[in-house]
Specification:
The protein is mainly β. It has two helices and 15 strands.
Length: 216
C-alpha cells in the first residue's frame, strides 16, 4: 500500500468482496469484485482498495477518473443458489476467484456493520501527463453516504483464488477465513477529497502502482 497509509496491525485481515449493484443511478445493473486492505491514516482506521474488477465500462471509467479506483474490465458475479451465496470472478476465460457463503445463517450486529461502512476509504489516483510523467498522484479519501442497511448476516464461508498475471488476486493468498458477511444496503458513493498530494508532499517512499483483499 502507498505511504503515508499504514497497515492496521491490530486487524490485518484482507477482505475479498463481491458486490452486486442491481439499480445504480446512471450506470444501471453491474457487478464488481476486489480486495480491500485495512489501513490507518494519521491514527484513523479505514480501508485501502487494492484492486477491483467490473463488468461495465461506464462505472470503470467514472471510478478511475473521478476517484482513482483501480478498476479493470472482467466478469464478476454474485448470486444465490438455494442455500448458498456464490461469488465468482472470471478474467477472460479463466476463473480467478470463487467465494461461497451460507445464505442468511445468522443476523450480524448492525451497529458494527454500520460502523464499518462509515469508516473512511482510501485510493491511489495516478493520471499521467502527455509526456508519460505523473500529472496527478494523490491519495484520495472518500466515504459512503446516505447508508440505509436493510439486513446483514454472517455464516460459514470459503474462498479460492487462482494465480493470474493480469488479475493477481492470489498474490495475497488465503491463509485462513476469519469471517464472512453479507450486507444488503442502499447507499451513495460520496465524492472524494485529496488526503495527500505526492507531487507537492513527497512521501518517504514512492507509491507502488501495481494494483491488484472473506467479506461479501
Amino acid at each position: 500500500m502507498p505511504e503515508p497509509l499504514e497497515l492496521d496491525q491490530h486487524e490485518a485481515l484482507v477482505k475479498y468482496e463481491f458486490i452486486r449493484m442491481p439499480d445504480s443511478n446512471g450506470f444501471g445493473d453491474y457487478t464488481e469484485s476486489g480486495q480491500v486492505i485495512p489501513v490507518s491514516f494519521h491514527g484513523r482506521k479505514g480501508s485501502y482498495t487494492h484492486c477491483m474488477f467490473l463488468n461495465d465500462e461506464g462505472p470503470i471509467a467514472a471510478g478511475r477518473e473521478l476517484w482513482g479506483f483501480p478498476k479493470k474490465l472482467a466478469q464478476p458475479t454474485l448470486r444465490t443458489e438455494i442455500d448458498t451465496l456464490i461469488g465468482t470472478l472470471d478474467y477472460g476465460p479463466l476463473r480467478v476467484a470463487t467465494g461461497t457463503m451460507g445464505y442468511k445463517h445468522r443476523e450480524a450486529d448492525l451497529v458494527q456493520v454500520g460502523a464499518s461502512l462509515a469508516a473512511p476509504n482510501f485510493l491511489l489516483k495516478i493520471i499521467p501527463h502527455v509526456d508519460g510523467t505523473p500529472r496527478i498522484c494523490e491519495l484520495v479519501e472518500y466515504h459512503l453516504e446516505d447508508v440505509m442497511i436493510k439486513g446483514a448476516w454472517t455464516g460459514p464461508a470459503a474462498l479460492h483464488l487462482s494465480p493470474h498475471a493480469l488479475a493477481p488476486v492470489a498474490d495475497l493468498p488465503v491463509l485462513e477465513i476469519a469471517s464472512g458477511i453479507h450486507i444488503l444496503a442502499d447507499l451513495t458513493l460520496g465524492l472524494g477529497r485529496v488526503a495527500h498530494d505526492y507531487l507537492r508532499q513527497p512521501s518517504r517512499q514512492a507509491p507502488r502502482t501495481n494494483q491488484m483483499a472473506l467479506a461479501t
